[in-house]
Amino acid sequence: MLEGRARIQDTDMPLKMQSQATSCASFALDLFDVTDCKSIAAHIKRDFDKRYGPGWQCVVGSNFGCFFTHKQGTFIYFSLEKLCFLIFKASAFP
Predict the structure, then answer these.
(1) What InterPro entries does the annotation carry (predicted)?
(2) Is 2 contained in some domain?
(3) Burial classification of residue 33, based on how many CB atoms lie within 10 Å of its CB (0-12 exposed, 13-18 middle, 19 or more buried)
(4) How many domains does the chain have?
(5) What HEC string does 20-88 produce?
(6) Residues 40-86: tens digit of each pLDDT
């Protein structure tokens, strides 16, 4: 696992889920090259889908913008090493 600590910028996730998000990101960075953001994001998304049910989204990179609607209690944005991570569960529209 990476020695660096994640810096959480914003979240509404429970603490246990926040810890899972940062741990999963750290593990993914051990598995994949830091430039392979797509594989890192896919790994995190699959882990969250398996643990917490389908519908999770993950964006990984060093420069991105976004606008989205999420289910309450399922959002986190943090940085680890030189990458930023955005994980959330999409909100269903009626």
Answers:
(1) DLC_sf, Dynein_light_chain_typ-1/2
(2) no
(3) exposed
(4) 1
(5) HHHHHHHHHHHHCCCCCHHHHHHHHHHHHHHHHCCCEEEEEECCCCCCCCECCCCCEEEEECCEEEEEE
(6) 999 999 999 999 999 999 999 998 888 788 889 999 999 998 999 99
